[in-house]
Here is the input.
Amino acid sequence: MKHNKKNIDPEEEIKEKVEEQAAEQEPAAEEAAAEALATARQQAAEAQDKYLRLAAEFDNFRRRTAKEKLDLVKSAGEDILKGMLPVLDDCERAIRQLEQTEASTFEKEGTALIYNKLLSYMKSCGLEEVDVAGKEFDPDFAEAVAQLPAQDPAQKGKVLEVIQKGYTLGGKVIRFPKVVVGL
Here is the structure.
């Protein structure tokens, strides 16, 4: 038998050994490749999920900051207009006072001109007067500072007099009118 082994070609012997080793290693290599493929797919899915979450988070951040900027600009304008309301009230009082005195027409016209310019600027910014005089009292749009007995039954629950004007800015009340309500 030893004789037979010597008759076998050494190349064939090496070839057989390589084929045997390859046959033994082939299932292990396939298993490793399958595991590597599954791991790569899982990592790709995780990366895709992270990307989608990051993109959504960035989109939310962008929207939130844009809204905050808009609110900041809007509230800054609102604060400025609120601060100018007492000046507008003073102009109205000055005009009423000048009408009751013997002031010159230049003084009256000058004060009225300033008042009209200020009022037109504030209206161009979106300021609107809340008109409640003679209407049914609505606590959502007016503040009752006094109640008086109504001389006419039709005036009960209605605004008899406006003590201080109220204003809205963009549909939002920035100052409630102060009124007298009939009982």
Summary: The helical segments are 2-7, 10-100, 105-124. Residues 53 and 59 are 10 Å apart (CA to CA). The two ends are 131 Å apart (CA to CA). Strands lie at 127-130, 143-148, 159-164, 166-169, 172-175, 178-182.
